[in-house]
Amino acid sequence: MFASTIRMALRAIAANLMRSALTVLGIVIGVASVVALVTIGEGATAQVRSEMSAMGDNLLIVRAGAARRPGEPHQDAAPLELEDAFAIAQEIRGIDQAAPSSSMKTIVVQGNTNWSTSVTGTTSAYLPCRSYDIAAGRSFTQTEDNGLKPACILGETVREKLFGNDEALGGIVRIGRTPCPVIGVMAPKGENTMGVDQDDVVLMPIRAFSRRIRGNDDVAQISVSVSDDRSTTAVKASIEALMRDRRQVSPGGMDDFEVRDMKEIASAISEATNVMTGLLSAIAAVSLLVGGIGIMNIMLVSVTERTREIGIRLAIGALRAEVRMQFLVEAAVLSGCGGILGLLLGNAGAYWATRSMDMPFIPSPSIAAVALLFSIGVGVLFGWLPAHRASRLDPMEALRHE
Questions:
Q1: Over the stretch 369-388, which tens digit does the pLDDT of each residue have?
Q2: In 3-state terms, what secondary structure has residue 59?
């Protein structure tokens, strides 16, 4: 019986195909919008996590200056020192690497070509801390880390701008007035979450950088790589205690430094992305309600148009429940077809958008199932009143209807 009811519903929909298509347009738009926005949001969240991981696994960043809230006055703080990085590496358990670094924007020259880039003074620990790989050449030696002799490792963008298709290893670049031999080239990493090109950088030993380029021994930040078997939260607390002692912060006093956990930043960004995706999806879901109202309207019209048909069915023995089921099935089929078409359009739109923004395309079967079931539920909900009205028609009055 149910199969015959579905066949009757499909025939009724096909008899007014254009009207049926316009009726489900709201359902199509609503489902497509929700599916597309959620899928794009999932892709954005995955990209944030991937890029944060690319910056360094289990990474903590130590910087001078307290974290300030909006509206709070700026507080001057003494810069970090190289000894702070050495103390963290030696005294804190659960640390793989601790890399001090300091950067400045300057012109790098090779032959007749020059390029404005960020030059970072650091140690060999910087590469594993920040998940950089060497594509060619080598990293700094312990002698270079501790000495004043210049050497440099180029990011892929700098290598391409200065050397093009030529071999960079063994070449000489001039940083400021300092000739610097190229000992290595880093593997490309691309842009980070903030749109900063991570390959547009030159690395130098920090002591040589401080003496020849920067002109002081200030350390801007210390990158700390935490072991996989240790909690970043516990290590962060230990570093904060050590730095309070080294910087002679009085008990109860405000820290003049901050330790950032990149996992916490990634989690905050992901949470903000999810909230925004949820809000936009909720707004898009309003289209489903509009589509449901459209279905109810067209089903009421259908009941009026088919009054005589309903009267004949009731007169020859059809149960009122069967008449009600027929119109409910028609509403469910209409909304279900709209939901399926919306799923296809939503995933197609999300695929195009994620590829355009260079994000991963991560379709969600659970969201697709929920959107489809919700669309069918909306059709049944708003189709109930017309179906109930059809089942309550008096057969004799319906047969006299023209």
A1: 877 887 778 777 777 776 66
A2: strand
Q: What is the pLDDT of residue 231?
A: 82
Q: Per this entry, what is the length of the chain?
A: 402
Instruction: Average the pLDDT over each of 121-125, 180-184, 356-360 and give the range with the smallest value.
Output: 356-360
- pLDDT given for residue 70 in this prediction: 44
Interatomic CA distance for residues 153 and 180, integer angstroms: 10
- Going by the DSSP 8-state scheme, the letter that residue 213 receives in this structure is I
Alpha helices, DSSP H, located in 225-364: 232-246, 262-305, 307-315, 320-356
**Higher pLDDT among residues 319 and 73, named by residue:** 319
Give residue 51's pLDDT: 64
Cα dihedral sign, 248-252-256-260? positive
CA-closest candidate to residue 313, choices 29, 12, 67, 58: 12
Sign (positive/negative) of CA torsion 351, 353, 354, 357?
Answer: positive
Q: For the chain, percent helix, then strand, then coil, each to nearest 5?
A: 55, 20, 25
Per-residue pLDDT, 395: 60
Contact (Cβ atoms closer than 8 angstroms) between residue 60 and residue 226: yes
Mean pLDDT over all residues of the chain? 80
| pLDDT at position 314 | 65
Per DSSP, the three-state class of 136 is strand
C-beta of residue 32 within 8 angstroms of C-beta of residue 346: yes
Instruction: Compute the distance between CA of residue 24 and CA of residue 36 in angstroms, rounded to an integer.
Output: 18
Q: Can you give the residue ranges of every domain in the chain?
A: 2-50+267-399, 79-246
**Global pTM?**
0.62
Contact 27, 286 (CB under 8 A): no
User: Which has the closest alpha carbon to 161: 189, 201, 134?
Assistant: 201
Rounded-to-integer distance, Cα 181 and Cα 102, Å: 20
102: tokens are: 């300091």
Contact (Cβ atoms closer than 8 angstroms) between residue 310 and residue 390: yes
